[in-house]
Amino acid sequence: MTTIRVLLISLLSLPLTALANPVADIQEWTVPWPDSRPRDPYVAGPDLIWFVGQKADYAATFVPSDAEFKRYDLPEGAGPHNVIVDKRGAWYAGNRDGHVGLINPQNGDIRRFELPGKGRRDVHTQAFTSQGDIWFTVQQGNKVGFLETDSGEFTLYSVETEAARPYGLVVHQDQPWIVYFASNEVATLKDGKLKVFTLPRKNTLPRRLAVTEDGNVWYVDYAEGYLGRLNPDSGEVKEWQAPAKAQARPYAMSSDKKGWLWLVETGVQPNRLVGFNPTTESFTDPVPIPSGGGTVRHMVYDPGSHSLWFGTDANTLGQARLQN
Fold first, then answer.
1. 40-49: string of b/e by CB count within 10 Å (b at 16+)?
2. What DSSP string runs through 115-172?
3. In what order do the strands lie in the sheet with 185-190?
4. Does position 181 have pLDDT exceeding 70, yes or no?
5. Whole-number Cα distances in Å, 136 to 141, 248, 293, 310
6. Which keywords does UniProt give here (predicted)?
7. What 3-state class would DSSP assign to 55?
8. Does residue 180 contact residue 161 with C-beta atoms inside 8 Å?
9. pTM
10. What is the fold of 22-322?
11. How do the domains of the chain map onto residue ranges?
């Protein structure tokens, strides 16, 4: 009875428009390996999603049409954080074991690419270039990395800001963009050097980012609940506070083919998906994640289905079909 009452209060606290006319239709599937923290899905085809289980050392595929899961066991202690896929296989970030791994989907064989050097080598978030090479962040190691995939050669760039924790990363027109989670900075790498943009609020903790077709760089501020836009040409920054304000804790974010931005407020339970229309500079009404989400850490946009894919700490894989 208490559970029903709490749920009813939660629903009544949401705007009526969020319940009656949602901007996204969310469906979730329970991952068959309990308490494994499924995360960082990657759309590898019209009916094929890859993801990793960070707490259970696996990568897996999911076929939405028949809800079929297939697991690939990784080396013990790999702590996979992220996966990206091309015709050669699935490249995962061995976050706890200092390597990038390439899975052969045909037989499950793994080729390891060991990060050079000593100290923390926690590969975090990866993204392909147009040539199939990989940019990635090394969060606790305070570096940005590049893997030339044919030769297996790494190049590591040290971040000048101490303990900046380079975190989210995207590649736009073959240029990497990075947010520093422990510093109010956004960075890019050009001509072999890191270029840093300082954000106006000192307390800003940017966690994820997206780059839209107009070249603007968008980020979410986990500390105080803002969505921000950086114009790299002028350095101008403009910010909007998310619906849950300072409690929002926005984490996962992405942009869609219409130029809208999408973020997940993880500081409220259930987590809520929120869209932002840059033309009207307005947020949509929040849509609750059905499972609650726990924490939605990363999501990717699939233009083919006009939807977002995400994993949750509630051990689900989710798809949000967008209605904008």
1. bbbbbeeeeb
2. PPSSS---EEEEEE-TTS-EEEEETTTTEEEEEETTTTEEEEEE-SSTT--EEEEEEE
3. 166-172, 175-180, 185-190, 193-198
4. yes
5. 12, 27, 26, 19
6. Signal
7. coil
8. yes
9. 0.93
10. Methylamine Dehydrogenase; Chain H (2.130.10)
11. 22-322
